[in-house]
Design a protein that fits this description.
Rossmann fold, alpha/beta
Amino acid sequence: MKPKDLKLVVQEKYGEIAKQSVLVNPESSCCGATLACCGQVDYSMFSEDYSGREGYNQEADLGLGCGLPTEFADIRKGDSVLDLGSGAGNDCFVARALVGENGKVTGLDFTDAMLEKARLNNEKMGYPNVEFVKGDIENMPLPDSTFDVVISNCVLNLVPDKLKAFSQIFRVLKQGGHFCISDVVLTGILPSMLQEAAEMYAGCVAGAIQKTDYIQIIGQSGFSDIQIRKEKQIVIPDAILSNFLSPAELNNFKTSGTGIFSITVTGIKHS
């Protein structure tokens, strides 16, 4: 697929998820009680438990993350924070609890239905210092040197040009600012059927790249002090993989040594 087609796949799938009414009527959703599994891929299979976090809003948690970036983001009172691929606002509201009344949180997303959901959630929360902006991570409609911290949760693997994405992060960060991103990466090569499956791309798997390449791209973007703060292997159930792989291909994949990992990585803009 061309990059623009991949973006349309992501917009369509995450638009579907945003429009689900599970919290109101679980039986009316294609996902039952888990919300984030429309289609053949359970998009919630990577998610972390946010319950108990200050600022947590259950209505904003669609189970689409693969980490807790705010846990390692060193967000302080008064900071200006940008959340990339902010969805229904989950990480933004947790970040708002950390920046306090004098800070500011901006969520960036390019899916209209997600932006609508996030804005409605924010109206209920009543935060005047939280806003949601429509935009593409590869070309953010945001000024240079604006934010103290950039966070993102299981989104950059969906961006076709990751060098552009990290270069944009570098641009919008203030001097001395930093990012903390949770994302999906690979070790080894995915089977071609998984690489080509748009459904798996929107589900954060087919769009993932090699962990070494991911870290290299961050460095190429200008960041220093790059650290992987947390890493865990993700095991995709056979029931999902069998939608894309034959029994023989599934067995080969499971014995190939290929690994799918969630990592939380940080880096600093020193220059």
